[in-house]
Design a protein that fits this description.
Number of domains: 2
Structural class: alpha+beta
Strand content: 15-25%
Shape: globular
Largest sheet: 3 strands, antiparallel
Radius of gyration: 20 Å
Helix content: 25-40%
């Protein structure tokens, strides 16, 4: 009788299962793809306070998505307007405006410590931290894939031609993707994709 075991193999989250089927071993591999459910992503990105994971908090912050602003404001007992004014800042990525916790920068450097990070306590809004932070874990080999998952599901906009063009440039310059995030998957209409990339479709 053969048994069951599960392994975690880099660089993707590969859940490798060995099972018996009529005395034969079956190998099933599950990758992180664009369509991996949020629940599974959050299970993979279990909270971690190691130096590798905290490094990002010292030099940047994660983007908000969904009800993040509402939840953070409620957690801090402030209005969303007060939250935006005192704790958040706006930036742009792939032609989309995204909101992140404000960075405490020194000497006009482009990077800085997240306003919600404390050296002693760690993340002071851990329970309600932004979705990008929740789906980020840098001490695992599949951490980069989780970051890409967030990017292609919450930043890149398949309905925005300029977003697609900028994402295409990201790929051409060596940017990594995950299954389901290929240009042809984001814009299945081949003719439309060609027109977008040739600037025949501007909006």
């Amino acid at each position: 009788m053969c048994g069951f075991r599960a392994l975690l193999i880099p660089p993707f989250k590969e859940l490798v299962e060995f099972r018996c089927l009529k005395n034969k071993k079956i190998l099933a591999i599950k990758l992180i793809t664009k369509n991996t459910p949020l629940k599974e992503v959050l299970e993979l990105a279990a909270p971690c306070n190691c130096d590798s994971c905290n490094h990002g908090c010292k030099y940047g912050s994660g983007a908000l998505a969904g009800d993040d602003a509402k939840n953070i404001a409620r957690f801090l007992s402030v209005s969303e307007r007060e939250l935006k004014k005192g704790f958040l800042e706006e930036t742009e990525l792939f032609n989309k405006k995204i909101v992140k916790p404000r960075l405490i920068r020194e000497k006009n450097k482009p990077y800085g410590r997240c306003v919600f990070y404390d050296d002693e306590k760690g993340c002071t809004i851990h329970e309600v931290k932004p979705l990008e932070c929740k789906t980020s874990i840098q001490c695992k080999d599949y951490g980069e894939q989780l970051s890409i998952w967030f990017m292609v599901n919450h930043v890149v906009d398949p309905e925005d031609p300029e977003s697609i063009r900028q994402f295409a440039q990201y790929i051409r310059s060596g940017g990594k993707i995950i299954p389901g995030a290929e240009l042809k998957s984001l814009v299945p209409d081949e003719e439309k994709l060609k027109k977008i990339l040739k600037y025949d479709i501007l909006k």
